[in-house]
Amino acid sequence: MAVPNGGCTEPSNVKAGGGHCRIRFQCAGCDFYEPDPSYRPALEQTIADLRADRETAVAMGVADWVLANFDHQLKAYTKVLADMDERVAGLSPQERKAVEAASKELRKIRAAQAFFPSDTLEIRRAR
User: Fold this and answer.
1) φ/ψ bin of 6: left (φ > 0), alpha (ψ from -120 to 50), beta (otherwise)
2) Is position 62 within any domain?
3) Considering its fold, how many domains does the chain have in total?
4) CA dist list (Å): 76 to 26, 37, 87
5) Superkingdom of this entry's organism (predicted)?
6) Distance between CA atoms of 51 and 84, rounded to whole angstroms?
């Protein structure tokens, strides 16, 4: 099941079409979260956004538990990225090249899907 920046294999969430996440899509903290290297730029952006949001929260003087939540999410997403980098680094140069090429293609496909929502594509196919 597609979730922000990856996939989810948690059975009840998959059965519900992605609408039944018990941890409210805090994916990096879940063992069912499965990002692949094609999501690397999105994960980096998520980390940057979380850091910016945390700084805004500090400036707002929010409760400590809010800042702790940001800190935990940042730690989790940073670990996801480090684990992914470690797995990719363990590949042969040919495999790394293949993964990067596939990742670029997947990012292009996702960008096209964002530009042309699936209902638009269905209308075009029907013509």
Assistant:
1) left
2) yes
3) 1
4) 9, 16, 17
5) Bacteria
6) 20
- Domain housing 75: 38-90
- Closest residue by Cα to residue 39 from 53, 28, 31, 24: 28
CB 47 within 8 A of CB 74: yes
Residue 123 buriedness (CB in 10 A; 0-12 / 13-18 / 19+): exposed
pLDDT tens, residue by residue, 45-69? 999 999 999 999 999 999 999 999 9
Do the Cβ atoms of 84 and 35 come closer than 8 Å?
yes
Tell me whether residue 71 is in a domain.
Answer: yes
46 found inside a domain: yes
Q: How far apart are CA 120 and CA 12, in angstroms?
A: 29
pTM of the prediction? 0.81
What CA dihedral angle connects 57, 59, 63 and 66, to 10 degrees?
A: 20
Could you give the count of Cα atoms lying within 13 Å of 7 in the half-sphere of its Cβ? 8
Indicate the DSSP class of residue 116: S
